[in-house]
Amino acid sequence: MKELSFRRKAYDRTLKVLMYLCTIVTCALLVFLIGYIFYRGAESLTWKLLSTQSSYVNNSIGILPNILNTLYIILIAMVVVLPLGVGAAIYLTEYATNKKLVAAIEFATEILTGIPSIIFGLVGMLVFIQMMGLKQGILAGGLTLVVMILPTIVRTTQESLKTVPQSYREGALGLGAGKWHMIRTVVLPNAVDGIITGCILSVGRIVGESAALLFTAGFGLVLNGFVQSLQSSSATLTVALYVYANERGETAVAFAIATILLLLTFFINLAANIAGKKLKKAKD
Length: 284
Hints:
The chain has about 280 residues and is mostly helical. It is built from 13 helices and 2 strands, in the order ααββααααααααααα. The protein has helices spanning about 1-40, 45-50, 65-95, 100-115, 115-130, 140-165, 165-175, 180-190, 190-205, 210-215, 225-230, 235-245, 250-284; strands at about 55, 60-65. It has a two-stranded antiparallel ribbon with strand order 1-2. It is globular and about 70 Å long. The model has no long low-confidence stretch (mean pLDDT about 85).
């Protein structure tokens, strides 16, 4: 009996040591990765790099067009995908009565979540550019990203709606609220955390995406306005990083772009968390 107890304690301690070791290694790798990128990129971050565009005449490099293109494509993709994704999740969770159809759609969204992004790029080029006649630009790239991140929005919103207790729905309906009024005033406010999480994941994937945009948004490094960029080749930050690192051999500029991507992701996540907290306070 004592021997069994000793073995069990030794087993628990071993697992605890392994768990702490894995945690330390993971955190160390994360700190090293972020620190190394900032170390290599900070020295190349200048106001000229951030506020100008590249010029072959002056042999200068600027990434202002790429920063704006990234913000444009986030705006296009999220404006389109949020109503579609949240609306589809509400219908599947609250209105749909055909369980087999719901299960088939959920299975399809899970499959789509795991498809490599370059396949979405090929499909986006075939559908939006060749079949629909759009030119390479922010619009084609944004619509391609909509198709790519729609399953993520749908699944995260669905899971959030399912966590809302059924008693909340029954109580609202018992007080005389209509179906849509109950969803809008009771269900959605209580599921806002999960919806915000889905938005953060989606924006993070948009910011870090390059393969799908190589075929649809293009490689353009020229500064365009929002309307012009919709139908003209416009490289985002990730595409520009690929161009400068792989084709031009500008490693310092590539690390500077990587630093900006990390900062952009951080501020987007921070803004989303602040918005989520304010929405939760407004609900309370």
